Amino acid sequence: MFRSSRVAACAALPAVLLLLSLAGCGGDDDVSPGLPQLAAAQAATYTGDCAALAARIGSPANTTITAASTVAAGTLTLAGQPIAEHCLVTGRMHERVSAVDGKSYAISFEMRLPRNWNGRFYHQGNGGLDGNVVTANGTLGGGPLTSALVQGFAVLSSDAGHAGALGPTYGIDPQARLDYGYQAVGKLTPMAKGVIQATYGKAPDRSYFGGCSNGGRHAMVTAARYSDQYDGILAGAPGYNLPKAAVANIFGAQHYATVATDPADLSTAFTPAERTLVANAVLAKCDALDGATDGLVQDTNACQAAFSLANDVPTCSGARDGTCLSAAQKSAIAPIFSGATTSTGAPVYASFPYDSGLAAAGIAFWEFTAPLALDSGSVGFVFKVPPESASGFNGPAFSLSANIDTLVAQINATDATYTESAMSFMTPPHPTDLSTLKNRGGKMLVYHGVSDPIFSVNDSAAWYDGLRTANGGDASNFARFFRVPGMGHCSGGPATDQFDVLSPLVAWVEQGQAPDRIVASARGAGNAGGVNAEVPAAWAANRSRPLCPYPKVARYNGTGSLESADSFTCQ
Question: How many secondary structure helices (H) and strands (E) does the chain include?
Fold first, then answer.
């Protein structure tokens, strides 16, 4: 693909996408030698009555179409802009009553089908334990200014096979576990493509899968299991080792409990003032490593070598007052960052880097609330074999009293009822073997906040290092990984967390234009996509930075505004 054709393709993008993906339109000229170049999608329209779609779709196998209706322009909005008129189709697949727990199950879904369709299908992976059919708009990132639906994709969203009203106890049903882990995607994909065929008279030319958090996990699993059916994979903060991460978070809760001043409130183990103290100490040691003292740590790896919790944060000689950490606190906190281990010292999950976003509000939820309110149920009912009994289950008590060695064994266990372990049904079977995706011309973009407290950016880096090794030391011709300094879990934190990763992925898949950087912006006062309250007051409201393909780091050029991405180069 010659640069002239890429420039033409970029020129055809809407202005907002050009702004958000500017650097992507200047990518490497030829980064995929020997790999197929997939053709661009061709647009189509649907001018008929949306209500008539139910009859046009008919009765796909194991599927009930429950409704088809028109959604008027402006019913949905994004960043204050109306989303165009489209058709909404809802339905259920594989309805059944469980022989194990007697509950009713189905894979419920919705599809949004634009009148003016761009020829593409976007499968939206949703977060958490799923269980809800959230709006199929295909948004990603903090305060998005665009989305798959806005761009004209046909978009699918599902509950992954269970109703949210069941809470985590759906994991008592073995098939619900498998649907949540990976099988719902396998069942939904051909159905959704059939709906698109019936609507527009042709199947999608290009298909994409994207999501963040558990949605990122879904994307990683799809890249490994269903890459023959998807051309582009977009994985944000991918908890692809989610069962391990959940056990690690329980490990963290147990450590925090040893130093909490209020046993009923884990946040008293590491208060906002104390987290700010550590974040400021990280900045003092690491901020300038990229050539600019600007409140962001770009050189994450160098920072881990430079910063020491033991030496760079004062140790209290008296009472805790927010200006120091006690020796007991340091002993409790350090193992959480270095990585949860079993009693023999074997790693449970990845380490977490020290970063500037440690004081952000979202950190508190994931560190102190989630292990008791979320991870307890996830591990107790969905991941471990055998599951807990739903009768009388107490989440906080479960997490604070659990034996970590036992939990690690249980997320790897099977029995006659639960024939796949959590580490089988929740994870990519061979995460660094993406040869099917690669060899058919597919592409993958992964992004992850460096300050993510629940799924470690180090785990994503380790995956990408493995992918590079499996591909002769370089996987950049089909997969790229971008770290987002300061950003928490999927968004937020003192970060430039507003960026469009979908448009660069499409340009790479369909135009051969690899993203050598993605420009991200802060969401300060007046931001159309939503203000991030954690943008520091000293920053420009629209500060921008390049997100660099790992292992490159954004370094200051030595001149130019510290508020502009143009002053930084990926090196």
Answer: 20, 17
Per-position DSSP letters for 320-358, written without gaps between them = --SS-B-HHHHHHHHHHHH--B-TTS-BSS------GGG
CATH no. for 3-240+429-570 = 3.40.50
Query: For this structure, is 299 an active site residue?
Result: no
99-120 in b/e form (b: 16+ CB < 10 A) is: eebebebbbbbbbbbbbebbbb
- Please list the residue range(s) of the chain that carry CATH number 3.40.50: 3-240+429-570
In this structure, are residues 129 and 213 in contact, taking their beta carbons and an 8 Å threshold? no
User: The pTM is what?
Assistant: 0.94
Torsions phi, psi for 346 (to 5 deg): -70, 135
Tens of pLDDT, residues 26-44? 444 444 568 999 999 999 9
Reply yes or no on whether 290 is catalytic. no
Q: Which of 294, 421, 489, 521 is catalytic?
A: 489
- Identify whether 452 is a catalytic site residue: yes
Question: What percent of the residues of the chain are helix, what percent strand, and what percent coil, each to the nearest 5?
Answer: 35, 20, 45
Q: 231, 299, 375, 452: which is the annotated catalytic residue?
A: 452
Closest C-alpha among 512, 432, 435, 443 to residue 231: 443
pLDDT tens profile 403-426: 999 999 999 999 999 999 999 999
Residue 142: per-residue pLDDT = 84
Q: Are the C-beta atoms of 216 and 121 separated by less than 8 Å?
A: no
The one catalytic residue in 108, 147, 213, 227 is 213
